[in-house]
Amino acid sequence: MAAKVIAIGQPVNDSERQAIKFLRDNLPDTYTIIHNFEIPQGKEKYEIDLAIIAPHSIFIVDVKGIPGLIDIYNSKWYPQGRDHIGAPLAKCRQNAKVIKALIRDTYPIKTNLKDIHVHAAILMTAPNSHVEAHGSSDEDDITYLNQKCLTYFKGKGHIPSHRLQDIRSFHADIEQAIVGKARPKSAPPIYREWQIEEELGGTPDKYTEYRAKHIFLGKRGGIARLRVYEVDPYQEHSIRDRQRNLISNAYRSIRLMPGHPNILKITEFFSTEAEDKFILVIEDIAAEPLSQHIRKPNLALTFDQKIGIIQDILSALNHAHKYEVIHRNLTPDAILVTPDGNARLTGFDYARVTKNRSSTIAEYIVDKLDYNYQAPECYRDPSQASIASDLFSAGLVFYELLTGQTAFENTAFLECDAIFPKKPSSYKPDLPTGMDEWLQKLCAFDPEERLISAAVTLVEFNNIITPKSPVVPQPNTGETPKSLAEIDLQNLPADYILDELFIIQKRLGQGGFGVAYKVFDSMGDRDLVMKLITRDKQSIYQRLVREYKTLLNIPEHPYIVKVIIAGKLPDDTPYILFDYIDGEDVENLLGNNTIAKIRALIIFGKNGKNNHI
Q1: Secondary structure letter of residue 566 according to DSSP
Q2: pLDDT per residue over 333-369, tens digit each?
Q3: In what helix (H) or strand (E) does residue 95 lie, and over which residues does it extend?
Q4: pLDDT for residue 592
Q5: pTM (2 decimals)?
Q6: What span, in angstroms and rounded, lies between the C-alpha atoms of 348 and 248?
Q7: CB burial class (10 A; 0-12, 13-18, 19+) of residue 584?
């Protein structure tokens, strides 16, 4: 006879339907299957796909329809062709504890019930599903929808010796306890425009991750990943604000900067009306974490592909740093590689999103960062994150990418001043000349000895992989060096590196004697305005010196732009640097009629007030 089935709710997808039918038809009538229910406990609800009451124990089963190969490393699952997910077993084990407590509390005087074993299991239903656990104990609790699962659910190998081996006399009590408390599992929720399609995994104390489709646009309009964070709406405002700040950090990081082809998109962040959940909407792409390409021989990358990935990540970091976003947790898992070899930077959950080193989330993420890739100054102190610390992490990732080996065992860099115990070329003798030194400079123990920016790092990397032709010495004719004479200072392109320090962002304007640019000071980690003198350089230079001295002698004032420094480029082009203030000039505002006359009078002090835009 077939197993007994109690339907509390309805299956939500084909995987669950297949699992219930197969188990019903193939398990004996001494088994009971209770499916698709949730157990309320306080303010929480625990959703359970299947509870199988067997003659010897209870199984709490999470049904997964993930196809293809899944690798498990530590607490993460790596489905083939997709970003990693939190191990589903963690949540399933929590559900098993809830069921055990429910049964015990329902019959407090039946003390033998405490010796019943309740076991968490994952049932894989896709025909080609295959899990490689790589030493993880999770492997013992994963089975497949075929003869293997029948053997698994009939076996007793999972039962500890101090637990009961035969619980048939308690079946009626167990069934009554579960059915009496269970409620039909809620229909797959809709969060704003996003309909949940599949639960992927997560962590019991942090979030659950789903794949979802847009309800108006359907799958053609895009599939996204949703991270749903549970929060307590009854907590004090200060605690809830802190939770929201931590959860929204990745979204704020991405929103601070324009889109970039090498940074994964985070499109939305919002809360439910009851403010008991926060939802982060993340672009879902076909891609493997870089860690998988490093670990798995069948995903090994060519040297040219590795070069492209390094270039992509440095470009992404440079873009983030321009907008004052420090990644702070760069690891091989934070880099996704698409089938065409394009790299995408992700994992901005713990980023620092302003220049302020006392970031409000730093003290709360100390135990969440991967210290195998942290810079020495950030060890146990995330508030010290900077461009330099991101570059240190990048250096460790690139070392591993190029050699297949980690640069240091765990945090051994603290004991050896971050000097590589083995140079990269000792693993890969065919690495281009200069690669050892470049990586070691990225990973210098002292932040001030590292390369000053991702842009400069990329330039040096490109020079290593494509060495410049040697320069033939020319007679000294007194002329400006050719390398600078050929530069059109009036029209420098975005991302051009001037004097190995200043990265051109955009041209702001020009006058009769010069041109002004918004530049990124890669050493000072800030935006500045650079005014270059491009005509009559010698005569104007003296005027520039007088202007600089005058501005230095003016006391700081909130309505006067602060001068930083003046100097000359190597070709003697004079320049002066100012603080960058984001805004419109008055001429544009007047020309566009976007400023009222009374406001213009105030700006120019006609009513006795000082003001600015």
Answers
A1: E
A2: 999 999 989 999 999 988 888 765 545 677 777 878 8
A3: helix 88-106
A4: 58
A5: 0.72
A6: 10
A7: exposed
Whether the CB-CB separation of 113 and 119 falls below 8 Å is answered with no
Half-sphere exposure of residue 553: CA atoms within 13 angstroms, side-chain side:
6
Name the DSSP letter for residue 469. Answer: P
- Angle formed at CA 464 by CA 460 and CA 469, multiple of 5 degrees: 105
Instruction: Quote the CA–CA distance of 575 and 530 in Å, as a whole number.
Output: 7
Alpha carbons 517 and 188: distance in angstroms, whole number: 52
The answer to whether the CB of 120 falls within 8 A of the CB of 97 is no
Close Cβ partners of 133 (under 8 Å, ≥ 6 residues apart): 72, 139, 142
- List the one residue out of 184, 146, 170 whose CA is nearest residue 23: 146
Q: How far apart are CA 518 and CA 507, in angstroms?
A: 6
- Do 40 and 147 contact (CB within 8 A), yes or no? no
CA distance 576 to 545: 9
Q: How far apart are CA 56 and CA 31, in angstroms?
A: 10
Per the DSSP assignment, residues forming a β-bridge with 228 are: 208, 279
Q: Retrieve residue 57's tokens.
A: 């124990």
Q: What does the alpha-carbon distance between residue 187 and residue 121 come to, in Å, rounded to a whole number?
A: 23
Which residue from 497, 496, 530 is spatially nearest to 515, judged by alpha carbons? 530
Q: How far apart are CA 153 and CA 120, in angstroms?
A: 11
Q: CA-to-CA distance for 339 and 285, rounded, in angstroms?
A: 10
pLDDT in tens, 402-460: 999 999 987 777 778 899 999 999 999 999 999 999 999 999 999 999 998 999 999 89
Alpha-carbon torsion 276, 281, 287, 292, what sign?
negative
Structure-block tokens of residue 572? 């003697």
